[in-house]
Amino acid sequence: MESRVSDNPDPSEGQDSDCESAPGTARSEPHEFCRDSAYESDNDVFDDATSPSAGKQIDYEGAGQVIGDVDGFEHEYSNLCDDPWAPFNSEQGFNLASWFIEGQVSKSRINQYFSSGQGDAESVGYSSMHMLENHLGLLDPYSQYLQWFEGEVDDGQRTLPFFYRNVLHCVRYLLRQIAYRDNLVYEARHEHDSTGQRIYAEMHTADWWWDFQV
Amino acid sequence: MLDQMNLTNFSGDKKAWPVYITIGNLRSARRNCLGSMAVRVLILLPIPPKLSRSSKADQCQRKINADTLQDVFELIFVPLQDVAHTGMAIDCADGKVRQCFPILSAWIADHMENVALHGLKTNTCLKCEVPTQELGTNSRSYRTRDYARYQRYKPENQNSGSESDDDHIICDNLGIGQNIFHRLDRVSASDLYKPDMLYTIYLRLFKHMMD
């Protein structure tokens, strides 16, 4: 297999420290990641160092720990709050762009829409497909993380292309989304109900994450 | 920090074989809601041509295709190998930089795709060494599959006398092939399998109740 294009992920060296985990408040969500004891390994394991559970014995120093602040985050966040429709001039401009995109309106028809005088360029913030494309490019400031790379494989009879993204860049992209700010968790927890019964709800309340991080 | 992947095979006039990625840090209610955009395409795999079972040439081509797929996944997983040990600093949505260890923790695919990627035969369990004739009986617990041990058994990796006869029998019976996760040090391939809630659990339960 040959890859015509390759990329160089840039894993940064980390620092060390401990993370905190604590039992949280009781939840009543259905079980999702509860481990099935029937699948647990019995005592007949040959080699602990290579057993499936070996990973649980390794420390991940500083996993989930805050080691700094993101440069320019406050500015970015305040801009988002002050002008939520940017780079469009108004909600109307955003909605019109959404309608164009979701309706798969052709570029020529969009240009025709504005050239015919039907569109109010002042209020929506763009007056051509070219300007709209520029605005769309600004909508996702982290789109560089989702860059595609092309590779090719040779199966002996022909050469086939395939396309891929850098897996770490995808993780960076998802963790960086301010929209997920209130729904992201960074550490494992044990949750219990009022009777002390362990509750398994989200992934971070189950054992796998706890065993690795805590 | 966690990765989670889905593998789906679309068929029709236009074929695509996408692999998706998401993160376990995101609460499932948000991840699964419409328009969350939290599951992104990671790879568009090359689609091999359909082959017959009878032809010997096709059997050989099938092996080549499987090896090709392994190579593609090895390329995709390369970035995950070092960070499992060193960690990496990642900018997070709350404006903080955190020390993260992206670890592949789940792999959702249908059974045929799973057995191909794990290098198993179709009538075997991905998680434990239950014999084929006892599948579905739940009569007793069996040892969790240790794919690292299978890897050591492979002829090119074999050291003389390093494995027991028992291992040889197990591996011979299973026809163990290459497992795409074998280069990910801190990933246990037998733990990766997660049932697809819709197709494996809900639909099967519904069918069972209707029967």
List the helices and strands and how they pair.
The complex is a heterodimer of chains A (214) and B (211).
Chain A: E1 66-69, H1 73-82, H2 91-102, H3 107-115, H4 121-124, H5 129-139, E2 149-154, E3 159-164, H6 167-176, E4 191-192, E5 198-199, H7 207-213
Antiparallel strand pairs in A: 2-3, 4-5
Chain B: E1 2-7, E2 18-23, H1 28-32, E3 40-44, H2 56-86, E4 88-91, E5 96-100, E6 103-108, H3 111-118, H4 147-153, H5 165-174, H6 189-192, H7 197-210
Parallel strand pairs in B: 1-6
Antiparallel strand pairs in B: 1-2, 2-3, 4-5
What does this structure look like?
The complex is a heterodimer of chains A (214) and B (211). Chain A is α+β, with helices and mostly antiparallel strands and 214 residues long. Chain A has a domain at 70-139. Chain A contains seven helices and five strands; from the N terminus they run βαααααββαββα. Residues 1-56 of chain A have low confidence and may be disordered. With 211 residues, chain B is α+β, with helices and mostly antiparallel strands. Chain B is 37% helix and 15% strand. Chain B is built from seven helices and six strands, in the order E-E-H-E-H-E-E-E-H-H-H-H-H. In chain B, strand 4 and strand 5 (96-100) form a beta hairpin. Chain B is globular. Chains A and B meet through strand 1, helix 1, strand 2, strand 3 and helix 6 of A and strand 2, helix 1, strand 3, helix 2 and strand 4 of B.
